[in-house]
Write a structure and sequence with these properties.
This protein has 2 domains: 24-144, START domain (Alpha-D-Glucose-1,6-Bisphosphate, Chain A, domain 4, 2-Layer Sandwich), CATH 3.30.530.20; 150-303, Regulatory factor, effector binding domain (Multidrug-efflux Transporter 1 Regulator Bmrr, Chain A), CATH 3.20.80. It is 30% helix and 34% strand. The chain has 6 helices and 14 strands. Strands 6, 7, 8, 9, 10, 11, 12, 13 and 14 form a 9-stranded antiparallel sheet that branches. A hairpin with a 2-residue loop joins strand 4 and strand 5. Residues 5-24 and 107-117 have low confidence and may be disordered.
């Protein structure tokens, strides 16, 4: 009996020593989020404040492994910071498992002793829990504003002739605002030339800087025939041929539709499909007519590389 107790005690001491002095991270949180790792990774990278009360604390991305992991450093004050390492794993097309590993940069040993001390509350962990739960509530609230439905098979994009307005170096979060500022150019051209439209308005990305989240794109109206039309200083005439592509359907405010692009990129990587990072969005609904964002539908395509 004594030998058993000694072995158990030795294992406990070894485990405690491993946790206090060897284990890389102080604490681990686990949760789930809606949609695929691509969309979830983007949402995590857009997290700008840690404080539940909205007080600014600088969050810096220090490392990322595409859609598998993301490491952030959160500056708490001039001398102290903590490290968050997020690990993502796909559950299915509509859910992602999230593991958050936390490492304090200051008072690491004292914080770990507080965590394992059964006789007192850990202010460090209690504060972290409050902050992480606040973020999770914000993530749920944000993800409730849209829905992403992937299609499993490779499809064909529509073949389109169109009149287009070109925009360059636009932040992803400013895409919808830019389209709103240029749509009158297209509408006036249609009225002036008495053109018959031949489908829904669409956006075609021509350049995507993923490091800086900037895009160049054409915002276009499809027309029946461009052969008799003339370009102007602000309106170009283009033909987009049909291409094989991955596809998903996005429901929600079009200002958020870019979140779904990252799920398409993840889908391509997961299936071993080489793609061109030039998404196309086809907008089925006019925001001026229906105020319920969840009724808005956009088809999102990511072309397969030829």
């Amino acid at each position: 009996m004594k030998k058993i107790l000694i072995v158990v005690l030795a294992l406990c001491v070894a485990g405690l020593g491993w946790y206090l002095f060897i284990k890389k991270y102080d604490y681990q949180f686990e949760t789930t989020a809606r949609f695929g790792p691509g969309a979830v990774s983007y949402e995590l990278s857009e997290w700008k404040t840690l404080d539940a009360n909205g007080n600014s604390k600088e969050i810096e991305i220090t490392d990322r492994s595409d859609f598998n992991s993301l490491t952030q450093r959160i500056k708490l004050d001039s001398t102290n910071s903590i490290e968050f390492k997020w690990e993502l794993e796909r559950i299915n097309d509509s859910a992602t498992a999230i593991t958050l590993n936390v490492l304090s940069q200051k008072n690491k040993l004292a914080n770990r002793i507080d965590i394992v001390n059964p006789f007192q509350e850990s202010v460090y962990i209690d504060t972290l829990k409050e902050q992480v739960l606040s973020f999770k509530r914000s993530l749920i609230e944000h993800q409730n504003q849209y829905k992403i439905t992937p299609e499993k098979s490779v499809v064909e994009t529509p073949e389109l002739e169109c009149i287009c307005s070109t925009s360059k170096n636009i932040p992803l979060t400013g895409k919808a605002t830019e389209m709103m500022s240029t749509i009158s150019l297209l509408e006036n051209y249609v009225l002036r030339n008495k053109i018959n439209l031949n489908g829904f308005p669409f956006l075609k990305v021509t350049k995507w800087n993923r490091e800086k989240d900037l895009v160049d794109f054409d915002f276009c109206f499809p027309v029946e025939d461009i052969s008799k039309l003339e370009e102007t200083g602000k309106i170009s005439l283009k033909k987009y041929p049909s291409q094989k592509a991955l596809k998903l359907v996005f429901n929600g405010n079009y200002r958020l539709s870019h979140v779904s692009w990252f799920d398409l990129v993840y889908m391509a990587q997961d299936r071993g499909i080489e793609v061109e990072e030039g998404p196309m969005e086809i907008y089925h609904d006019n925001p001026k007519i229906d105020s319920d964002h969840m009724n808005w539908v956009a088809e999102i395509y990511l072309p397969v590389a030829e």
